[in-house]
Backbone:
């Protein structure tokens, strides 16, 4: 039944993303201009991420950090994230270009968030099940605590989504995401910038780091 939903889900993703791109076009254009003025070029952040079945694609978002510049002390994410970038993230407007990834079929509106390529060989077989579906712009993790969760908790929610995915669940997640964004709830990790790196247990890491 879950696999039967994947076909209609793709159609919903395509139509939904195209509609959202049209509706948000003026906002997207304005944000692009603001990013160019505040952070310079390039306006877009591009990075390879693993998609369904671990296939690599290029994720696109609006840039929210300055370039690395050791001479100016801009090395860590905390150093490079400007007040403008923080506001961009807190409103999730940096995600607007990601709708193009949905249109192209790399991503879904709802699903496990695409993480780093370097994490692929760190997952347990159960955790790797998160790649049985297209990654999402939002998901159970984003409405269930975001970066306030441990890695164990995040992966458990990702796999739960894979097993329970349905139209009703997707609608509930999308509505909850809108509410979270409006309240600016749970956007950043405890350091106020980004989530901690996932380190596999067998390499000495702690999934809850």
Residues:
């Amino acid at each position: 039944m879950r696999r039967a939903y994947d076909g209609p889900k793709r159609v919903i993703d395509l139509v939904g993303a195209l509609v959202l791109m049209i509706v948000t076009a003026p906002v997207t254009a304005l944000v692009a201009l603001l990013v160019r003025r505040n952070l310079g070029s390039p306006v877009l952040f591009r990075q390879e991420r693993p998609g369904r079945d671990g296939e690599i694609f290029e994720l696109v978002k609006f840039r929210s950090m300055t370039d690395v510049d050791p001479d100016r002390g801009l090395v860590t994410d905390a150093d490079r994230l400007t007040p403008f970038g923080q506001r961009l993230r807190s409103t999730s407007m940096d995600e607007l270009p990601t709708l193009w990834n949905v249109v192209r079929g790399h991503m879904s509106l709802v699903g496990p968030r695409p993480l780093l390529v370097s994490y692929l060989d760190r997952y347990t077989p159960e955790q790797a099940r998160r790649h049985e579906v297209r990654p999402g712009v939002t998901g159970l993790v984003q409405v269930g605590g975001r970066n306030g969760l441990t890695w164990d908790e995040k992966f458990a929610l990702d796999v739960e989504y894979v097993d329970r995915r349905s139209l009703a669940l997707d609608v509930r997640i999308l509505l909850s995401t809108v509410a979270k964004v409006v309240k600016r709830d749970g956007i950043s990790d405890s350091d106020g910038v980004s989530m901690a790196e996932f380190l596999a247990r067998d390499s000495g890491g702690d999934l809850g780091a």
